[in-house]
Amino acid sequence: MNFRNTLKINEKGHLEIGGADCVELAKQFGTPLYVYDEAHIRNMMRVYRETIEEEYAGRGLVLYASKAFSCEAMYAIAKSEGIGADVVSGGELYTAMQAGFPARDIYMHGNNKLPQEISYALDCGVGTIVVDAYSEADLIEAEAQRRGVIQNVLLRINPGVEAHTHAYVQTATPDSKFGFSIQDGAAEQITRYVLARKHLRLMGYHCHIGSQIFEKQSFVLAVEKCLKFMAEMRQKLNFETEELNMGGGFGVWYTDADAKIPAEGYRDYLSALIAAVKKGCADYNLRLPRILIEPGRSIVAEAGVTLYTVGAIREIPGLRKYVAIDGGMFENPRFCLYRSKYTALLANRAAEPCTERVSLAGKCCESGDLIGDDFNLPAANTGDIVAVLTTGAYNYSMASNYNRNFIPPAVLVKDGKAEYIVKPQTYEDLVRNDVLPARLK
Ligand code: LLP
Fold it and tell me: Among 50, 107, 131, 206, which is disulfide-ready with 154 (CB 3.0 to 4.6 Å)?
């Protein structure tokens, strides 16, 4: 297997990540286990930050889209790399605050922010709120007025660009629950509305066309549509955009059907986007706005590996072999949700040739609970350690306690040493919020 980043097979034939032997990690911390390589995360953050510094004179900010993997350590890493963060709930915001993240560098998203989330965001002093509904604009205006402050906002607009990705993660098609459409005039109307609010300061626009996208052209097209709209707003409303936030969405490698982009290669996505902004501004004679991007997946996905122990093995002759592991849809629901593909290997026999095609079955009580149904592996035995690659984004963050399984702990590896960033759960944790009314005792 042709690895990138810090993954390699060591002299024992074991998989290594960030200099740590995965078999040793499984022994030390147990399985299932989410393992994150800190060097990869930092490299990716730096590539984006440096590209903006070098190609756009630093007039912008990289925001880590923390929905991809939110825990205190991630906000601490983002802070130390000099990048901001986007949050999509009161819970993510609270986590960032607990980690000492500067509120001014936080952008708050969501298509239906709750009144208590907006109020909490203002209490924290969140830098910018991205408005996605009239009701939200009203709520923010009221909360800001009550506090005697002016809140920076962006408007989420929908440029109507179809990106080639899974329908569930496309966000800028005409039929979308997100954003004010440029095409049907909704974006112009909300611009007028927000400009007339005394306690909202409209900084500009945000758009996010989808996730796991490889074609640069989709981003360029979105930029072009946004700039055309910005030019119209200046002409009609005398509103000059100060900030343009182009969202996230850059694709990552899951299997060999995906491109393998080295960390440095992500510079090209941002360069294409920056070039399109510069060109559009020149064409329309607009002032260059600050540029923001919000990569999530491309920062953490390939930094993560999930380790499992093989348990039951069931062969259905002529049909299929199920290799059951100690995880499942409760810690990685992406195959169930999106039919997402992954690459797996046996971490303790990583140099052996693959001889079988198997399904990796989870331990939940339902047939659809698979991590995938076409993994190539050496003939696995009970007790082998399975490593599923590229599990750093949207795995832990979408995990649940379904079947009252534990959400696995996460460790962060640096220079071969691993430490917890998310502790293991206990049975007590599972019943912590249960209440047994006296009459049922
Ligand atoms: N900004 C906004 C407004 C977003 O909605 C998203 C992702 C991002 C940034 C980050 O996009 P990324 O760089 O990670 O592609 N659960 C799905 C992914 C949902 C993505 C939602 N929005 C999955 O597991 O594939």
Answer: 206
